[in-house]
Amino acid sequence: RKSWRSRFLSPSTSSANTPPQNDLLRQENTRESQRSRHVPKWWKIRLFRGMINDVKRRARFIGAIGWMRGIIALCLLLFICTLPTLAFSLDMFTKTDMSYGVNEVLLASVLGSVVFAVFAAQPLVIVGVTGPITVFNYTVYDIMTPTGTNYFSFMALIGLWSLVMHWILAITNSCNALKYVTRFSCDIFGFYVAFIYLQKGIQVLTRQGSAEPFYLSIVIALLVLVVGYLCGVAGSSPLFQHYVRVFVKDYGTPLTVVFFTGFVHIGRMASVSLSTLPTSKAFFPTKDRSWFVDFWEIRVSDVFIAIPFAILLTILFYFDHNVSSLIAQGTEFPLRKPAGFHWDLFLLGLTTGVAGLLGIPFPNGLIPQAPFHTASLCVTKVVADPNEEGAAKGHVTTAVDHVVEQRLSNLAQGLLTLGTMTGPLLVVLHLIPQGVLAGFFFVMGVQALEGNGITLKILFLLKDSSLTPASEPLKQIKRRKAIWAFVAIQLLGFGATFAITQTIAAVGFPVIILALVPFRTFVLPRWFRAEELRVLDAPTASPFTMVSVGGNFGESEEELAGAGGSGSGEWRGG
């Protein structure tokens, strides 16, 4: 039986452009997989082993740079990182009494992008400010500010405690537990993030006052949603030439934001006073303070009160960032370079501590945007449609041939984001109406829902079964009620997570997210048949990607050996 890796690296899909490292890696995997393996007991923790293996795996690929494809991906990456950053800065600016503004959020994105582009084992992950950390930040503000505690000093302590916790998790190889993370919990978390986006858009509109500004903001937000969504639809349709579709799909939404920023100044709309994105001086914090936080100017009791908040932050980042990394290295991408979850978690702890000292939001992996960077680096080829029948004979489609894995695009995106903190560009950003940002929230939310596994299962259940293609995997399940039950459980998990976010206990939502993993591992197999779970749920990443953590849950010894690893997460590629 061929493993995932051997299928994608077979001679039929290889080409003359395949890097020589790939052939060497495959030969070594074949040779090393024949050796005997010893899986240590779970309580025998070999400190630093996961991080050392991560560095060894990536060391041979340091010199491989795809310059041209990286430049192409850069433009898309800059837009999909900067626009959500601006939207979240508006939300935190309002809910933290101007503690975090555009400059703080932009600098957080720069910190994450540059550090991970240069030092990460997997530089494909997009690192920036996310919706969940926005909720975390303003909830901590609501809890601690009434007590008289300095907010920035307290957040710095949270960051420093979390740094220590991240490093402990990385050193003790805790990322090996990622083998138990499947699409079940990832889809629930993605569903939650999508609704957070939609909620943020509505909240922005409710702050637009009354009469003309309020109604015009609603109209603009809906227009941004419709046009931005149609750009995505057009990009996936058979209309126009291929390069036109790719351009519309990748850059349609950013250009929509640009267009409607100017659209509000046409005709009678120019007389309506719309609220715009608040900005501050170039390279200065929003509030009158220095970039370095005096974290020692705080009560001793607050030093220890910060510990439970740091635990919750660490749980959130452990799941959020690693899931983002898994999605960026999803099974749909034929990656050649190995992952490095342990080392990247160590780096995430470093950026968390530094962000706390600088008084900026903590950056981590972005969920909805996770696959966009990798997808923009994919090189496709035209192949025959495998599902063609009858009149469709001869129809062709495109398939991913390989991914240009490089560090250039992420690094350049971080440096260009730093450039947006200059005076002239801040003036331009200040022109963006808040209604446009609300519409952008809607676009992100709808697009995230559209590709979510929960949404796809619901659509399958609502479709006429006689009109559903025979190739649909869910049709393999004989018990239709099993699909209903699985979706209902996922919606309950989402509901619990979203509900707690609406309360003062919102900082506790990472606990619910993390609890979904053992629930899937130990409870769902009692309620569903094994063949049903194989269709309803699936590993988030390929066996090749999961070598770093010992393979996917339930993966056979042969599949893991073919991917070049061992059950303990040890590299077997030489």
TrEMBL record:
UniProt keyword terms in alphabetical order: Membrane, Transmembrane, Transmembrane helix
Pfam families membership: HCO3_cotransp
Residue span of region Disordered: 1-33
Domain Bicarbonate transporter-like transmembrane: 46-212, 214-539
CC terms in the record's Gene Ontology section: fungal-type vacuole; plasma membrane
Subcellular location: Membrane
Top-level taxon of origin: Eukaryota
UniProt entry tagged with the keyword Membrane: yes
Entry's Gene Ontology BP terms: monoatomic anion transport; monoatomic ion homeostasis
Recorded topology in the membrane: Multi-pass membrane protein
Bilayer-crossing regions: 66-90, 110-136, 148-168, 180-198, 214-235, 255-277, 298-319, 339-360, 415-432, 438-462, 482-500, 506-524
GO molecular function: borate efflux transmembrane transporter activity; solute:inorganic anion antiporter activity
Compositional bias segments (type: Polar residues): 9-21
PANTHER family in the record: ANION EXCHANGE PROTEIN, BORON TRANSPORTER 1
The protein, known as: Putative transporter
